[in-house]
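This is your field. Please look over both lines of this record.
***
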Amino acid sequence: MPYKRVITIHSLVSLVYKAYGLSANDNSLGVIAYKLMGTRIRKVDRVIAISSCIKQELIRYLKVPEDKITVVHHGVKEMFKPLLGEELCSARKKYDLNQPYILYVGVLENRKNILSLIKAYSSLREHHQINHRLLLVGPKGVGSESIFQMVEKRNLQKEVQLLGYVPLNDLPAIYNMADIFVFPSIYEPFGLPPLEAMACGTPVIASNTGGLPEVVDNAGILVNPLILSEIEEAMWTLLSDDHKRKEMSNKGLARAKLFNWKTTAEATLKIYQDLN
């Protein structure tokens, strides 16, 4: 009896770049590899997609039969949770986080749309009196040089703090201390950082593209990442309204509980068992 084959697809980013208005080369190795992989994917017995977004992309771009695809979401680590005051002191001192801040966590690269976040933040400071810094956490990626240049161009060297890579164990505290979390990525197949922020009780603003809406749903504010005024308005809405911020915090905590690795493991195991 031939063995059964299952494959899990986490991202098709090189294949879908153009659909999200990002530059991509049709002859790039990434695109060619995905197209060649499509032939193999169509021959497996079951495909696990980490989001409905990925499922639709598999159907549209690689012509994978819909009945072969099952969506199994990722979970969020249990370490991401609301923390008590004394648990935050170490991180606050280590990273000099004594001032209120707006947080972004993720790779510093083009498709994360950080330039738009900086522009929206700069505009927010011009239109409203806020004392929040913009804290960018994550390693350098493609196009990160332009981020540093933008900070200098806008004279925001004192207002924008770039922490670079931060050890995983420090992230929960950094999420907890943020007043709001903003994730304006152009494309995400799932969106783990917003989920981590919600699990910590931090109000979330995220893009209305890719897999982010199915993660955040109505537990955060979804914006068009290409419209700066939407990002700015969402930030001001939360920063200026304590009640709204608390509401989004509670909704985020409840939403995050739906994404746990135990459920992910059980759903994945069932797919394999059903093939026997």
Summary: The chain has a mean pLDDT of 92. The chain is about 45% helix and 15% strand. The first helix runs from residue 13 to 16. The longest strand covers residues 101-105.
